[in-house]
Amino acid sequence: xxxxxxxxxxxxxxxxxxxxxxxxxxxxxxxxxxxxxxxxxxxxxxxxxxxxxxxxxxxxxxxxxxxxxxxxxxxxxxxxxxxxxxxxxxxxxxxxxxxxxxxxxxxxxxxxxxxxxxxxxxxxxxxxxxxxxxxxxxxxxxxxxxxxxxxxxxxxxxxxxxxxxxxxxxxxxxxxxxxxxxxxxxxxxxxxxxxxxxxxxxxxxxxxxxxxxxxxxxxxxxxxxxxxxxxxxxxxxxxxxxxxxxxxxxxxxxxxxxxxxxxxxxxxxxxxxxxxxxxxxxxxxxxxxxxxxxxxxxxxxxxxxxxxxxxxxxxxxxxxxxxxxxxxxxxxxxxxxxxxxxxxxxxxxxxxxxxxxxxxxxxxxxxxxxxxxxxxxxxxxxxxxxxxxxxxxxxxxxxxxxxxxxxxxxxxxxxxxxxxxxxxxxxxxxxxxxxxxxxxxxxxxxxxxxxxxxxxx
Length: 457
Hints:
This protein has helices at 4-10, 25-32, 35-38, 81-104, 123-137, 156-170, 180-188, 197-204, 207-212, 222-231, 250-257, 259-271, 297-313, 361-384, 392-399, 412-426, 434-437, 441-449, and strands at 46-56, 69-78, 140-146, 193-196, 235-236, 275-279, 282-288, 324-328, 333-335, 340-342, 344-346, 349-351, 355-358, 431-432. The protein is α+β, with helices and mostly antiparallel strands. A six-stranded antiparallel β-sheet has the order 6-7-3-8-9-10, with helices on both faces. Strands 2-1-4-5 form a four-stranded mixed β-sheet.
């Protein structure tokens, strides 16, 4: 049986619709934690949708609404309710083994994402720490990289071998084979079936409609689902690579896939007295110039070539547009490709050699979303001849300082404040400008509203 604190933290009932009913974990805990049950468990198909986010391109435009954007698509898949508990349970098990393995092989501090043993740290901490190390080196070379379509390209053979190594090595076992329950879980996220959510909604009805009819799953029974499956075959991953992004176990499997890449880059960092970090598919390697002063840039170019070789060997494709080499001379960042002044962009923060800011799209989206809400409210106010603008509560909670205590995470202003405080603490030698980026937030929103906000900042 699991510790109650772990259950309360990780196994909350989810509100989404799927092919099975929502169920409290306490009612299925004995099943989920029983390997003999899981080895024969029949996993339901995933539901698939495309998450659309915005990538901002070009220079900032004074008319903020018209700044050029580019859509970024991520394929997300989510499991049924019982399957989701199984993935969460096995992710907890393997995360513990991965922590042991990472500590034993001395990569614990370089693999940062999806770690249960780093619960109070975030991208803010990791970015602040690495930027502070760059500054402390005084003069350094920096290699920043990004993996292309990371989850979609994980090679199944490499993933399986690494998973076996981590499970066996953590427990000091000689048996280099997946147990039957683990094999079933592994197969379910490599040879997975799925339906597009749009297709299911067209057949079964929209989510709000089903909720209104008190129907808590897309099909009234599993038998009805099976009949549908006979006539409408699920799509399957027939490739020898790729796992679904969105399951509770996907993140730790991505870390396990990267263990040899991490090991090799950590060796390079240690060899030159530098530092290496990877956060999911983003990595950064910093080499102090003092360690290679006699060989100069040519040595760093050789290091980059070695990193590319290691990536290719582990079937990791580097995204060329996001992989770049920089030089820090104590006051500025220079892109070594074109010798122009530049900025290191890592985990949502940009460093120009002196100051640190949130990545430009973050405050831009904050203001644009606030203006969109004001515009929508004013339109409804005019249409319905209202005395006051609607959506006031939403506006105050999301886009003013009144919402900074909103549970559990606050709002974007809370994020900016946390960023400012963390960077001031962990990177005291840089000029940290997060709060300056949203300094005039109250005045800007008041201008759009046409009224004064009763908010202190």
